[in-house]
């Protein structure tokens, strides 16, 4: 049975120490737990369950003010079976990785999806993050993919940790909305997606194909995976060579380039619109 209400907790509690150490990647990997901060992330975590029905939210630390203000979220956390702690502001601040904590910090189980399960679902739209090192960018691209209706996100083994607190915050809850596969070698990702009937496009400013022209030709309506590269140096040549095509976002003004998250949003929405057009592909058929 879930606990009846928030349990006061001491700053010296072992539970506080265990939560605090999740700010470090090695402990996240060892415990297979991560932090979700703020009401939006905690709300989504409380409502999320793994495929086997296991609740994602394990524990919640809340200040008295936040527990009162977000009573519905605290109730949802209790309903999900999470242990809820009433904690002094300094304890929540100590666990939190933000400059201005919002009074709620959840401890969550890892929720990444095996890449084989992503392929088995026959996705129509996928974002692949290859060599993306900035956690804020990774989380923002995940949010863009969610908003565009993508069925999955894949982070290659050369990309940032999905559970970095900055990545979790930047996803603004989208981490809990769609399957994410992690640690997949880029060659395996491309080969697997292509085998599942998905066209693989590399997004690169030096691409030999123009996104607008591809849309005008009606070439964007089928199942598509977009591969996005490093924030500073883009995609290496060997990764571009794996794709079916290398596509650039046209720059109609005088800007030198687009940042990663903006370019990803443009590409993903272009595919989403094309797929939803009358001639687009609304489902994947196996050839």
What can be said about this structure in brief?
47% of the residues are buried. The protein is 37% helix and 19% strand. The protein is α/β, with parallel strands linked by helices.
Describe the structure.
By secondary structure, the chain is of the alpha/beta class. It contains 13 helices and twelve strands. It has helices at about 15-20, 25-30, 40-45, 65-70, 70-80, 90-95, 115-120, 135-145, 165-170, 185-195, 210-215, 235-240, 260-275; strands at about 5-10, 35, 55-60, 85, 105-110, 125-130, 150-155, 180-185, 200-205, 210, 225-230, 245-250. Helix 3 runs parallel beside helix 5. The protein starts with 6 loop residues before the first strand and ends in an 11-residue tail after the last helix.
- Uncertain segments are 282-287
SSE string, helices as H and strands as E: EHHEHEHHEHEHEHEHEHEEHEHEH
Q: Write down how many β-strands occur, each being a DSSP E stretch of 2 or more residues.
A: 12
The N- to C-terminal Cα distance equals: 49 Å
Helical proportion? 25-40%
Sheet/helix structural class: alpha/beta
Task: Please tell me the overall pLDDT.
Answer: 91
Strand percentage, roughly? 15-25%
Helical segment tally? 13
Protein traits:
about 290 residues, alpha/beta, 5-stranded mixed β-sheet, 13 helices, about 35% helix
Topology:
Layout: E1 7-8, H1 14-20, H2 25-31, E2 33-37, H3 39-46, E3 57-62, H4 64-69, H5 71-79, E4 83-86, H6 89-95, E5 104-109, H7 115-120, E6 125-129, H8 135-147, E7 152-156, H9 165-171, E8 180-184, H10 186-195, E9 199-203, E10 209-210, H11 211-216, E11 224-228, H12 237-240, E12 245-248, H13 260-276
Helix pairs in contact: 3-5, 8-9, 8-13
């Amino acid at each position: 049975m879930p606990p009846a209400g928030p349990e006061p907790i001491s700053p010296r509690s072992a539970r506080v120490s265990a939560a605090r150490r999740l700010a470090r990647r090695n402990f996240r990997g060892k415990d297979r737990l991560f932090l979700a901060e703020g009401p939006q992330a905690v709300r989504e975590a409380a409502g999320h369950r793994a495929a086997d029905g296991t609740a994602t939210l394990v524990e919640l630390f809340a200040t008295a003010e936040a527990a009162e203000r977000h009573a519905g979220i605290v109730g949802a956390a209790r309903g999900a079976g999470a242990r809820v702690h009433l904690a002094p502001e300094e304890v929540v601040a100590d666990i939190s990785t933000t400059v201005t904590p919002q009074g709620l910090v959840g401890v969550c189980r890892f929720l990444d999806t095996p890449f084989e399960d992503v392929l088995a679902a026959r996705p129509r739209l996928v974002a692949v993050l290859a060599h993306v090192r900035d956690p804020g960018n990774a989380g923002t691209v995940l949010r863009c993919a969610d908003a565009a209706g993508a069925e999955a996100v894949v982070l290659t083994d050369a990309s940032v940790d999905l559970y970095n607190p900055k990545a979790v915050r930047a996803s603004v809850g989208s981490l809990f909305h769609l399957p994410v596969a992690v640690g997949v070698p880029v060659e395996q990702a491309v080969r697997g997606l292509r085998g599942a009937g998905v066209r693989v496009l590399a997004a690169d400013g030096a691409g030999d194909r123009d996104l607008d022209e591809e849309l005008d030709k009606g070439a964007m309506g089928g199942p598509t995976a977009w591969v996005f590269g490093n924030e500073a140096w883009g995609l290496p040549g060997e990764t571009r060579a794996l794709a079916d095509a290398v596509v650039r976002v046209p720059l109609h003004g005088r800007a030198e380039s687009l940042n990663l998250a903006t370019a990803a949003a443009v590409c993903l929405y272009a595919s989403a619109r094309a797929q939803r057009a009358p001639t687009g592909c609304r489902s994947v058929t196996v050839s």
